[in-house]
Write a structure and sequence with these properties.
heterodimer; A: Tetracycline Repressor, domain 2; Four Helix Bundle (Hemerythrin (Met), subunit A); flat
């Protein structure tokens, strides 16, 4: 954050400072919300709602989902405000609105804080204050615990920080039922366990980027081989955990099939990542694991949505 | 540093500001509709049941 002005190019600094007026377009402000992360938040939160079979007014459920999405976007915005200096030196992130000079850091801060407060307040009014408190905690955890503290200080950053990304189903269930039950906790655990293999596969490919930015990702600190072993270890835990909804009675036959096939796919790729350690094939298989992990999580949650939202549920046990 | 009072927006800057203003207006409008809908959904007809 402190070195942002040093990281920006001369024209970017000039455009920010020349008149003190906002230079950002609507699309730049929307980009601050990390739309792709917001989609994941909405999707997992929706599944958290649907598996709860709530008896709640659809308008209130819709507004609750919208506020969870905006809260997720606000935390992404505050993350971009804080990390603008490292975003500027990473190829993956240097075109984001702040390092690109389209939005001033203070604008992003005000935008993020306003959306955070607004989303928590309206979620509290539309549903209940347990859900609002959980959303506030999620934003706090992502911005303060993950972005400000863990990300630059420990290679376990995305392991612990992954809790923030895993919380939306719990917030959503609390919003529509007023309490937290086992099913949303299991969804939390699946996303939490999925995060390390997902991000470390990317970190293996982009380790140069992270090193330049000075972020202690696992491949830069413990080395690529240790990271490959840890990816495999987390995947060995993730694959059976993916089946837990079946044993807790809210994952049906379709879910059981998808989670077994998907879990085996994740395991096969994690073993390949562990075995292939040199050159282009090693990078390619890490990239494949990163891509497949997104598909895996999407399929697990989409199947639950289909089973509970569209009547495709056929119980496996009992 | 240009004097803020004497700074003239370029056509592109004017367009961006216009788009930001429209987006802000729409957001505020949607917020009003959402709050109205939440009030109706939570209170229903009871919203009129108050001492005069």
């Amino acid at each position: 954050m402190n070195t942002l002005s040093n990281s920006l190019t001369e024209p970017q600094n000039e455009s920010i400072a020349s008149n003190g007026l906002s230079q950002g377009d609507v699309s730049d402000f929307f980009a601050l919300l990390k739309p792709r992360v917001m989609f994941l938040v909405v999707f997992t939160a929706l599944v958290g709602m649907v598996v709860s079979h709530p008896n709640v007014n659809p308008v209130l459920a819709f507004v609750s989902l919208l506020m969870i999405a905006i809260g997720g976007g606000a935390s992404g915005c505050l993350n971009m405000w804080w990390d603008a200096d490292i975003d500027a030196v990473m190829t993956r992130t240097r075109k984001r609105p702040i390092p690109a000079g389209k939005i001033q850091p203070n604008e992003a801060l005000a935008f993020g804080l306003t959306l955070s407060a607004g989303s928590v307040l309206i979620l509290g009014l539309a549903s209940n204050w347990l859900a609002a408190g959980l959303l506030a905690f999620t934003i706090f955890f992502y911005v303060v615990i993950y972005s400000m503290w863990l990300k630059r200080s420990t290679p376990q950053n995305i392991v612990i920080g992954g809790a923030a990304g895993a919380l939306p189903p719990i917030v959503a269930q609390a919003a529509v039922t007023g309490s937290v039950a086992w099913d949303s906790v299991i969804l939390f655990a699946i996303i939490f366990m999925w995060t390390p293999p997902h991000f470390w596969a990317l970190a293996l490919v982009k380790s140069g980027d992270y090193e330049r930015a000075g972020i202690p990702m696992m491949p830069n600190v413990a080395g690529p081989n240790s990271t490959r072993f840890q990816i495999l270890a987390y995947t060995v835990l993730l694959a059976p955990l993916g089946l837990a909804p079946v044993f807790f009675g809210f994952g049906g036959l379709a879910y059981a099939i998808i989670s077994v096939v998907g879990g085996l796919g994740m395991l096969a790729l994690a073993i390949q990542v562990y075995r292939l350690r040199e050159g282009e094939p090693a990078m390619r298989v890490a990239q494949q694991l990163f891509g497949f992990s997104i598909l895996y999580l999407f399929l697990l949650f989409a199947t639950l949505l289909a089973e509970h939202g569209f009547g495709f549920f056929h119980p496996v046990l009992g | 540093m240009t004097d803020r009072n004497s700074y003239h927006l370029t056509p592109e800057e004017q367009q961006r500001r216009r788009r930001r203003s429209i987006a802000l207006g729409l957001t505020l409008g949607i917020l009003c509709i959402l709050l109205f809908a939440v009030t109706m959904a939570k209170l229903g007809p009871q919203v009129l049941n108050r001492p005069l």
